[in-house]
Design a protein that fits this description.
The chain is an alpha+beta fold and 514 residues long. 49% of the residues lie in helices and 15% in strands. The protein contains seven helices and 15 strands. Strands 7-6-11-3-12-13 form a six-stranded antiparallel beta sheet, with no helix packed on it. Strand 14 and strand 15 form a beta hairpin. Helix 1 packs antiparallel against helix 7, helix 2 runs antiparallel to helix 3 and helix 2 packs antiparallel against helix 6. The chain starts with a helix and ends in a 7-residue tail after the last helix. The relative contact order is 0.17.
Length: 514
């Protein structure tokens, strides 16, 4: 085969170009620190790099964003719950003091003031938020757990689900003595009440007081359940009940018979939010372990009242300036578990929230309201005793007036004694209620604490995985600089040698031999 100068020149240029390409590739590895610059150079490395980068990006999202955000949310929640637990401990101490000690008027007023402040603070903790999102309100993170101020422009119709264990037997004093019963001009005809006495009454204390007086109240009994124990709904989405109770009498708290229902009846007292049962109704419901749902309405809410939509099936309607309801503004709420979940690892989600209804209930507030009402009632009786003693101290009163005033004073002192016993019973109920609330809060703290530990374990594992994936990505993509420098220098030597050889060859031609 004849080798021409052109053939030699072409081969020489091809070899130089090949060496130059290899030198250029090594130079790019050296300057960028990467094995390849485009997928076509090594498809296997490119595909593996895409997968590793995707995995590492997800790891970084979990480790650097999702988990820190979840931890912060849970820390805010746990801190609020621990504060509530501390407040309940203080409440319990005051209730123990009230149940066991003989309290002066100053002592009672001091305890009342402290309990009121502690009650308000408990519900304020329910408005704890993280980054502008309320942590105790489930999916409704833009709605506070309690009302921030007095509200009268919303009308709620709600259904409270109770059973026979929610019926309380509580002492009540009757035949309260009033100053108006004393007639100084005709003391012998003064209409003094019968001697005060105490009697247990059966009541259901609703979640709210100051309810709408002229609104209809419904009591439905024993909701139907299927074989799985689930509630049964009709085609319109309403619960199906087996029975209802219709013999309900709406009565004012100021009526002397408010707490003395006739057989077979229940008294509804809107001012106090109480249902007072006749003894036969209580016995029947208790013996048959009745479950009952009570539907009622409320419009006036005070600051720090819990919002009904977080606790009950209810509807909310706006009240206009004329005091009328605007039907188009009605919103329906259904009470369901609302668990906020964060994805904290590949195919792993974690609940980060605690719902207010699982930790902060109406009962503690209503219990404190009972105690405060009893303290106020005793103060009123003591004020009447002071007024009576002032009248007795008047040297101008007649013997008939003195006799009538002494009889009134005796009744008032008996009344005070009964009310003090009732107050001690209320404090004893407060001890039980605060302990039950602490158990509830303690369970919530333990639950979120265990989830926080799981989150920390996941964070630790992701930290290790992040290091591993970063190392794998480096091994897959990054060039070994030592090897690259050595190969570059070798290739540079080869390239220079090729140039030198080419220089020797192209110097000779056919003309040199003619």
């Amino acid at each position: 085969m004849r080798i021409t100068n052109r053939m030699m020149t072409n081969n020489m240029l091809s070899n130089i170009n090949t060496n130059k390409n290899q030198l250029s590739a090594l130079e790019q590895q050296y300057s960028t620190g990467k094995k390849i610059q485009k997928p076509s150079e090594d498809p296997i490395v490119a595909v593996r790099a895409l997968k590793l980068r995707t995995n590492l990006a997800e790891l970084n999202q979990y480790y650097e964003k999702n988990i820190p955000d979840a931890k912060s949310w849970m820390e805010v929640t746990e801190s609020a719950l621990k504060t509530v637990n501390d407040i309940l401990t203080q409440m319990n101490s005051y209730c123990v003091q009230g149940a066991n000690d003989t309290l002066t008027k100053s002592d009672r007023n001091s305890i009342a003031s402290n309990l009121q402040e502690l009650k308000d603070q408990i519900y304020q903790e329910g408005n704890s938020n993280y980054a502008g999102r309320y942590v105790f309100t489930g999916y409704k993170t833009d709605t506070s757990l309690v009302f921030a101020e007095n509200t009268s422009d919303l009308h709620y119709q709600m259904t409270e689900k109770l059973d026979y264990t929610d019926i309380q037997m509580t002492p009540r004093m009757f035949n309260e003595t009033k100053m108006e019963q004393y007639d100084k001009d005709n003391p012998e005809s003064s209409e003094l009440a019968d001697k005060p006495y105490q009697k247990d009454v059966y009541r259901v204390r609703l979640a709210y007081d100051n309810l709408v007086e002229d609104a209809e109240i419904n009591i439905n009994l024993d909701p139907e359940r299927n074989e799985k124990g689930e509630l049964v709904y009709d085609e319109d989405g309403a619960l199906v009940y087996n029975d209802s109770f219709d013999n309900i009498v709406t009565i004012s708290a100021y009526d002397e018979n408010a707490y003395l229902p006739e057989d077979g009846t229940i008294h509804f007292i809107p001012e106090t939010g109480e249902l007072i049962m006749a003894a036969d109704v209580y016995t029947e419901w208790t013996n048959n372990e009745r479950e009952f749902h009570i539907s009622y309405e409320k419009r006036e809410f005070q600051k720090n009242d819990l919002r009904p939509e977080h606790y009950f099936d209810c509807t909310s309607t706006v009240v206009n300036a004329e005091g009328e309801l605007e039907p188009d503004s009605t919103i329906t709420y259904t009470k369901k578990d609302q668990k906020i979940q964060y994805e904290v690892n590949f195919n792993q989600k974690l609940d980060i929230n605690v719902q207010g209804s699982d930790a902060l209930t109406h009962e503690i507030g209503r219990c404190i309201d009972d105690i405060l009402a009893q303290i106020d009632s005793i103060s009123q009786t003591e004020d009447r005793i002071e007024q009576t003693e002032k009248l007795l101290a008047d040297e101008k009163i007649t013997d008939e007036q003195k006799k009538a005033l002494n009889e009134m004073l005796s009744m008032l002192e008996t009344e005070r004694t009964i009310k003090e016993e009732t107050l001690r019973a209320s404090f004893a109920a407060g001890i039980t209620e605060t302990q039950e609330q602490q158990d509830l809060v303690g369970e919530a703290i333990a639950d979120i604490g265990s989830r926080y530990v799981r989150l920390e374990l996941t964070e630790s594992r992701l930290s290790i995985q992040q290091v591993d994936f970063t190392e794998l990505l480096s091994q897959n993509e990054d060039a070994d600089l030592v090897d690259t420098i050595i190969n570059f220098m070798s290739q540079e030597t080869i390239y220079n040698a090729a140039l030198n050889a080419a220089g020797q060859i192209v110097q000779n031609s056919l003309l040199d031999f003619l």
